[in-house]
Amino acid sequence: MKLAVWTYEGPPHVGAMRVATAMTDLHFVLHAPQGDTYADLLFTMIERRDHRPPVTYTTFQARDLGSDTADLFKTACREAYDRFKPQALIVGASCTAELIQDDPGGMAETMDLPVPVIPLELPSYQRKENFGADETFFQITRALARPCEKTPRPSVNLIGATALGFRHRDDITELTGLLLDMGIAVNVTAPMGANPTDIARLGAAHANVLMYPETGESACRWMERELGLPFTKTVPIGVGATRDFVAELAQFLNIPAQLDETRLRLPWYSASVDSTYLTGKRVFVFGDGTHVKAAARIARDEMGFEVVGLGCYNRETARDIRATAKEFGVDALITDDYLEVEERIEALAPEMILGTQMERHIGKRLGIPCAVISAPVHVQDFPARYSPQMGIEGANVIFDTWVHPLVMGLEEHLLHMFRDDFEFHDAAGASHHGGKSVPRSAQSDAADETGSMPGADAAPVTGTGTGTGTGSDVVTWLACAERELKKIPFFVRGKARRNTEKFAADQGLQEISVDTLYEAKAHYAR
Amino acid sequence: MNDLAPLPATGCRDVPVLRERGQREVFCGLTGIIWLHRKMQDAFFLVVGSRTCAHLLQSAAGVMIFAEPRFGTAILEETDLAGMADAQDELDREVDRLLARRPDIKQLFLVGSCPSEVIKLDLAKAAERMTVRHAPQVRVINYSGSGIETTFTQGEDACLAAMVPVLPQTQARELLLVGALPDVVEQQAVGLLEAMGIGPIRVLPAPRKQDELGVGPNTVFALTQPFLGDTHAALERRGAKHIAAPFPFGEEGTTAWLRAIASEFGVASDLFDQVTAAPRARARKAVAQAAEFLTGKSVFFFPDSQLEIPLARFLTRECGMTAIEVGTPYLHRDLMAPDMDMMVQGPVFSEGQDVDLQLHRCHAARPDLTVCGLGLANPLEAAGLTTKWAIELVFTPVHFYEQAGDLAGLFSRPIRRRSLLKLDAAQPPAARAEARR
Ligand code: SF4
């Protein structure tokens, strides 16, 4: 038993729904109680879908238990077929139905429906949403895909995009264009946009592009084994990764690696002087494994940030993320416990978070800007505009998205210049964000003014000791030093505090005075 | 001040009801936690359930992510399902940890779910044990919000009904208002009743454990929400007397509800009029403004919050709408009788659901406004229908005089919006030509 407050992933049957909803002409019969129908609103509200997900729930009640839940399932299955006439059915159980052991798969098989019926095993008490999506798509592929003649010209399948995915809709468009530029056709895009007939001809492609390992890897591995389709291991998010992806694919297909970069702006935007202020920004990266791995690379190599910590919530990618963390010289945080993530962020005190909607809330509470890079999704993650993460335009979008929560370079410079101005101070925030700017109160001004020299009565403030692991001594900030620290612009204040504390601890000092602060500044100057 | 409009010669009390038993598209009772935990400020709601239950709560709560909300889910895992003794021990451990971390918690609700019911995890026993263990700081109560037993707002009913047996005994003649309402709304009702000289007035649920009330043979109670059937029964078992009335939605409903209480307490009619005249006039004016967009329009209710019947009464009598179908998850005839008496015959009343059949009826009827759950709203809008999501009716202050206009506004806004948008003109010329063909 584990206490959960907020969860990153839903149960596995929600993953199955993401696959079913992404496809067409497929119907999902789910043995589940009425309350589980809440899952429909994820699709109709968050993603603004204009159709109900293709799911029939049996909605059994307490009075049905032990007597006719099995009949209910069969009736629901029969009626769903008659009403929707799908090309194939998938059947499964939610957490409650798993306990009553009606065996939906077995029952559906005995019903002689005129279309393929694919049973799903969705172990609700062990696994989660991403597993459910991956497993469902794998079972559909295994049941329907057959070896077939290859297309005459080079072609690939785009694998892994589902409903409720983080920018999946636009990533498909971007990659389809990128492939077209290389002279590669898209054979099938699946699950998103495919029907069961399309699944049957997956084998006609020359290779698979695995867009999202979370939801497509099992199927790709099976197709590699059974249909001889190699699949790409690089996820083309970021400039470097996109170039690597193109090279990898070109090698599979034995064609020249060519990438049209005329629309690519990230490298120049990052090199231009306004971006100088991005240098060494300390960022913490958290989300699903795929997006975290990609984001860490972009953060370091394409934005010039310093990655101070990273992690993922889906255990399936833990090994990959541990390897990435090692490469970046940080500890990987593999957890689906929101409170642990919050604790780590608090300890690391980054200047920015690249995370999920959960981390956005953590950031809001701690006053740390956050850009969203990964599912779980929120209605904001389905913008009306074209907004991919992959390929050339994806890189441009990422640059804009990540810079948005920060104050702009020139603005940061002005804040620094005018930091004593009563309305142009730290708490004013970036000018392109909403919210009323709070004038600095006369009282706190006065407090700041009263003597910058250490006074005998100055109450010392205990250092935050933010887990730098530099000995057990508690370093104390003298009030004057604390006041001096406040004069440092807020966007570097966290760094200054940590550096000073580390410096003091290294020097074996118990107290931090104004002098210590400036000695530390000189020490770390670069 | 005018009295109530005359009742229709034949109300809807005895009309036959269409009973359906197919796929239901409704929340389970766990959803009530979203508003109950805001109301009871020293309570924590611990669902003993699955990842699905946790996900439901999170999805229903939407983006309201608090630092650490006063609810959570103890997620059952494979190992808990193997042996019962383990699950009880595990629960003790999680609760000990939780209470150690949250010393502000004075009431803990152990909330049962479908999985905990199916494996017959005895939460009543757990609550008893924990009450002894954590007394007197924390009281532990259990109820079920499971989807196999409760529908959406029934969770609040189950919660309040579970609190009734542990309320202290009293002989005092007190008025008890039952139902979790937003504070501002609750204070309005209490203010009006006190102005008529009625008191002392208590409210269930109380915001804090220490403000708690007693119950006994001299208690009289009024329900503010129509879904409190089990709580009603539990209070009657404690000897309390129910004041039957229409529910306090709209000017008429509020007046009838107040009048029923006033006559129980022997309030003179001129005092009643004096206290209610001004707010009644305000409510009528406010409703009239919104009703401008509602008059002559038709409405179709999918079963959802259990508020459907009183709201249909409000919309048909005060806003000039016609009801086509009034669906409700289940029909508590006795509690609904005063509202049904006031309704003009005509609409189909349906109980339970077969969502595909009901959608079919809805598409065929093409109502001007459809009141439905969040899962259905956008698909219906895409099919050209105008919708109002029912969940907002539960989360928004809509009771009593001062909110009557807001209540009407919730229904008129979608209709006004549709009339304001000129989206056809925004279509590209090609699509317009296509559409004209
Ligand atoms: S219907 Fe049952 S299993 Fe589903 S969320 Fe509600 S209590 Fe949990």
CATH architectural arrangement of the largest domain in chain B: 3-Layer(aba) Sandwich
Helix content of chain B: 40-55%
Level of helix content of chain A? 40-55%
CATH architecture of the largest domain in chain A: 3-Layer(aba) Sandwich
CATH class of the largest domain in chain B: Alpha Beta
Kindly give the count of domains of chain B: 3
Average pLDDT value of chain A? 88
Keywords:
heterodimer, A: 526 residues, alpha/beta, Rossmann fold, 5-stranded parallel beta sheet, 4-stranded parallel beta sheet, 21 helices, 16 strands, 13% strand, globular, B: 437 residues, 3 domains, 18 helices, 14 strands, 46% helix, 15% strand, disordered C terminus, binds iron/sulfur cluster, metal ion binding (chain B), EC 1.3.7.7 (chain B), LIPOR_BchN/ChlN (chain B), metal-binding (chain B)
Write the layout of secondary structure elements.
The complex is a heterodimer of chains A (about 525) and B (about 425).
Chain A: E1 2-4, H1 12-22, E2 26-31, H2 39-46, E3 55-57, H3 69-84, E4 88-93, H4 95-100, H5 104-109, E5 117-119, H6 129-144, E6 155-161, H7 168-181, E7 185-191, H8 196-200, E8 207-210, H9 213-227, H10 239-253, H11 266-271, E9 282-287, H12 289-302, E10 306-312, H13 318-328, E11 332-334, H14 338-348, E12 352-355, H15 357-366, E13 370-372, H16 391-403, H17 409-417, H18 442-449, E14 461-462, E15 476-477, H19 479-487, H20 490-506, E16 511-512, H21 514-524
Parallel strand pairs in A: 2-3, 2-4, 4-5, 6-7, 6-8, 9-10, 9-12, 10-11, 12-13, 15-16
Antiparallel strand pairs in A: 14-15
Chain B: E1 17-21, H1 33-39, E2 43-49, H2 51-61, E3 71-75, H3 78-82, H4 84-101, E4 107-112, H5 114-118, H6 123-134, E5 139-144, H7 154-163, E6 175-178, H8 183-195, E7 201-204, E8 220-223, H9 229-237, E9 241-242, H10 250-264, H11 269-291, E10 298-301, H12 308-318, E11 322-328, H13 333-342, E12 348-353, H14 355-365, E13 369-372, H15 374-382, E14 387-389, H16 391-395, H17 400-420, H18 429-436
Parallel strand pairs in B: 1-12, 2-3, 2-4, 4-5, 6-7, 6-8, 8-9, 10-11, 10-13, 11-12, 13-14
Helix pairs in contact in B: 7-9, 10-11, 10-17, 11-17, 12-13
The complex binds iron/sulfur cluster.
